[in-house]
TrEMBL record, chains A, B:
Pfam families: Acyl-CoA_dh_1, Acyl-CoA_dh_C, Acyl-CoA_dh_M, Acyl-CoA_dh_N. It comes from Pseudidiomarina gelatinasegens. One of its GO terms (molecular function) is flavin adenine dinucleotide binding. The keyword Flavoprotein applies. This is 3-methylmercaptopropionyl-CoA dehydrogenase. It is an enzyme of class 1 (oxidoreductase). Residues 283-450 form the Acyl-CoA dehydrogenase/oxidase C-terminal domain.
Length: 591, 591
């Protein structure tokens, strides 16, 4: 696999010029000491880790995979040392509460760090990624005692965390989980049950693992309103903070998977394991969901990271590999063939990748910025507006970034021809690793249902308004030379508005409509949102080209996106308008 | 992985009722003794092999993979025995010349056999598949002596074949190959060079391997018009037909790949290996291409087979797995959840799979029928028309069946949620195995270039006419109850006609247009062709439902296809109309 180079310039362009995050930071008490120079320095530190330690190890780690023997999991060579470096750099707690040692950085910066970590090695990124999710959940919902006992060790990366939701019979449908929590006399609970697909549920990177486990109390109401959340450490922690006896949670096996071979995906058996309630009884799901907005963007960024890496590799290859002649004579006539990049279809593939990668970087930063405003803003109106955008965009970020991320990695493999199918080039690993991000943390179908059902229909379309308003603000100040593209954005936005209205009008008459058109609707929102991001980036880039030549492509790529990718929305409209009709003609036996 | 069940009923429906192939056979001297009962019996024999021997071994064979040690390749457990069974059943020579022991069956039947073989195990299918291609090439282009020496042994499956085209620096661009062929005194040639990605180039299934090798004679003109074809056996064959000394061709290594782990993908080193010219000097590429129409449909069917298997698994899973509640109360209220199949989005996924699988089966049989007419018909007009359809549809069959096949396997993985990512369920293997079919035997981008460049633009659109005429014949006899769908087909066909005209009008002014819009154009043709196939199947199925209840879904699935899949064409039009403009704004350094 080729060396990975973090796109530092593009990350800075997005943060500084497009979204002007520094202006936000200056407003927010907790971020007022942060400036762009510091942010750039931080990104550069992360980039060094990603480029020199993590990325070079990813191919070998995939080949070696994780090993399971006698209840213990061994991670690939280099993982333990690299995790130690990551922890010592403070990266496990990059967005975590400074009170417990976290860096307390905004998500807009963390989004860049996460992208580079995932581009370097998704498997490796998961050990700290899940820990960050657990940290956030504990910080927001656990009592002071639990916080004092666990947070500092987790934020410093001495211990890691896991999120234990899925059971063999219960994936998407957490309401039917069977894990039980029975009160002990000392205020703790005895947790019993089997959890599967637990990322980082067991491994050898650190001494202790803090599991956050969904289980049902004896008096729990049925369904999803009867689920509670518990903290269950692998080793019990003694008064002085040192590790005590082994708790009754053990890894029964690990999964053999299509990708993320170096990530331990565990079956965990809880046999009366000692745990402590986090948050209120029966309120476990909402507690889990407070960190979902952060986590789901993070999973979206996994798709983006893999896509960014694949694009970089494909671009290198298309410039180096000589094959065939372009339609026009080139400067390569003394060589036996032209580089791939002269061919129209190769350019189509590369630009599709570039449009999704750079558009995705802009989009994830846009969502990250809204998360930051929602978290740090004092002004209630500003906060509420950002929260609304986050509500709307979170499922889009998770699903659209991972679906387009997967598409990009598949294209990036295609650019390599037969070599893309061979392991040594690394392009196929990116496909295999990116694939899981469309599935876990709520399948992309579930994200679509969340978007159209809970968010759009649930608000009677109100939640769409802040996005439409942001788009309108941009449309009000068109850039000369992009008149056609501004018109395309205006028309696409109008189509989104129309389709949204049509679907909402049918919800009362058709109980199946939401789940029947949700995926196509999410794509519609995604393509329009990316169109907005692309034109926003183009408008900002255009006057800067003279001083920063690398921005020359932004307007051109925006034009490409509008001409070649955005028209895909016209392929979605027919399906959405069909509603549930075509999906419910078949009896179950007629499939 | 679940048991595989060959869709015998659907295959018979397609052959007998939709395409009425029996009527063709009766006309053709060489097929006049074949009837549907025999065909059904043959399909049933193949089905037993696929279901009981090959499919059950596929998961283990993927895990074990092929091994390379000291120049020899070991195939997974069971492969040798299963290949022997396949050979003894006459399946290696299923379409081969009866003069040398072939079954001489038409491609329309072979297409069903190939689908089941690929559904059972794509890796396994390749050993006989490449042999069939080599058989055809030798039969059509080699001299009588070579035919007498090699064909019978290959057709009986005692020896296998390989096709040696690619070199490290020359994949798509065969004009720049460097392998040399120098004349020996005895009329043979000494072949020297390195070939890569050679499927079945070395293995332990049989005693001898017959390599067909592209190389350049000393006096060869530059480029693709200077390539000759040679037959190079692994072991030289003595006068009495027994094996003599080892030839100078050796396997240097095998590739480690994303999928088809049980297929040996070899680097072959030719060190003055003894070979014999096949066909005319410098006419090696055309000789290879005579079998390409057959082979490319065969590769398309690999995508179809993987898709068909994935659909079968996903449907079983969606009926068994209980998760969540549907919008309506179901009969499952006493259970803790409803089966997945009640959910709209799961139905969307299943029906998308079904539409591509059954539509693909119809389409591949349609193309197979045209190959048979082109091969067997006496009437020159009938023959020429079929040849034109084959020319047009071959790149569509290869690319569209593999791209939709891959899409289907990815959806089939998604239906399983997290379990789709785990190896033991088999869904992820189908994704990995299907992926290669989009790449080899000419990448799908190259297929698109062939379609739009050589076929459509090369004929000034004439080659499209027979397809348009077949569609018009159908449109002239609409089925009551499908008025909307017939109108959709008519409009889509008109759009195809319009777009084709627009592109042709621009070819003179824009040298890059073909390669810039070819992929989207191929999709446009593919979606319209599948729409035609679906309505054709619906028209035939409708009156038969009473006697064959399993056909009840055909009209419904046709309606689904027209409402939910065909509209994708409207997402392609904008990109095609943009031409090459958006692809050539970027300088090479601006990507």
């Amino acid at each position: 696999m080729a060396d990975y180079r973090v796109p530092r310039e593009d990350m800075q362009f997005v943060l500084q010029d497009v979204f002007k995050v520094e202006q936000d930071w200056a407003q927010f008490a907790e971020l007022s000491e942060l400036d762009m120079d510091t942010a750039v320095a931080i990104i550069d530190e992360g980039a060094k880790l990603a480029e020199t330690l993590i990325a070079p190890n990813a191919r070998a780690a995939d080949e070696e995979g994780v090993k399971f023997e006698n209840g213990t999991v061994t991670t690939p060579k280099g993982y333990k040392e690299n995790f130690k470096q990551l922890a010592e750099g403070g990266w496990v707690g990059v967005t975590a509460n400074p009170e417990f040692g976290g860096m307390g950085l905004p998500k807009s910066i963390s989004a860049q760090y996460e992208e580079m970590l995932c581009a370097a090695d998704i498997s490796f990124s998961l050990y700290s990624g899940l820990t960050a999710g657990a940290i956030m959940t504990i910080d927001q919902h656990a009592d002071d005692n639990l916080k004092a006992t666990y947070l500092e060790k987790m934020i410093s990366g001495q211990w890691t965390g896991s999120m234990c939701l899925t059971e063999p019979h219960a994936g998407t449908d957490l309401g039917i989980i069977r894990s039980k929590a029975e009160p002990n006399e000392d205020g703790s609970f005895a947790i019993t049950g089997t959890k599967i697909f637990i990322t980082g549920g067991e491994h050898d990177l650190v001494d202790n693992i803090v599991h956050l486990v969904l289980a049902k109390l004896p008096d729990a109401p049925a369904g999803s309103k009867g689920i509670s959340l518990f903290l269950v450490p692998k080793f019990l922690v003694q008064q002085d903070g040192s590790l005590g006896e082994r708790n009754g949670v053990h890894c029964g096996s690990i999964e053999h998977k299509m990708g993320i071979h170096a990530s331990a995906t565990c079956v965990l058996n809880f046999d009366g394991a000692k745990g402590w309630l986090v948050g209120e009884p029966h309120r476990g799901l909402p507690a889990m969901f407070t960190m979902m907005n952060y986590e789901r963007l993070g999973v979206g960024i996994q798709g983006l990271g893999a896509a960014a890496r694949s694009y970089q590799n494909a671009l290198d290859y298309a410039q180096d590999r000589l094959q065939g002649r372009g339609a026009k004579a080139t400067s390569e006539m003394e060589k036996e063939a032209d580089p791939l990049i002269v061919h129209g279809d190769v350019r189509r593939m590369l630009l599709t990748m570039k449009a999704f990668v750079e558009g995705g970087r802009g989009f994830s930063t846009y969502v990250g910025q809204q998360l930051d405003i929602a978290k740090y803003a004092q002004d209630p109106q500003q906060k509420a507006r950002a929260e609304a955008l986050v509500q709307l965009l979170t499922p889009v970020a998770k699903a659209f970034l991972t679906d387009t991320g997967f598409e990009v990695t598949v294209i990036g493999q295609q650019v390599f021809g037969g070599h893309g199918f061979i392991r040594e080039w690394g392009q196929e690993q990116l496909v295999r690793d990116a694939r899981i991000a469309q599935i876990y943390e709520g399948t992309n179908g579930i994200q679509a249902l969340d978007l159209l059902g809970r968010k759009i229909a649930g608000s009677r379309g109100e939640l769409l308004q802040p996005l439409l308003q942001d788009i309108q603000d941009l449309l009000d100040q068109p850039l000369a030379g992009l008149e056609v593209e501004f018109k395309q954005l205006a028309e696409a936005t109008e189509l989104l508005r129309t389709i949204t209205g049509e679907v909402l009008n049918r919800v009362g008459d058709d109980e199946n409509i939401i789940n029947s058109v949700a995926v196509e609707y999410l794509y519609l929102v995604g393509y329009v949102a990316f169109a907005y991001i692309w034109l926003r980036m183009a408008v900002v880039a255009d006057p800067l080209v003279a001083e920063r030549p690398y921005l020359a492509s932004k307007v051109k790529t925006a034009k490409f996106y509008m001409a070649r990718i955005l028209p895909r929305i016209h392929g979605l409209v027919g399906a959405i308008r069909d509603g549930s009709e075509s999906l419910y003609r078949h009896e179950v036996g007629e499939f």
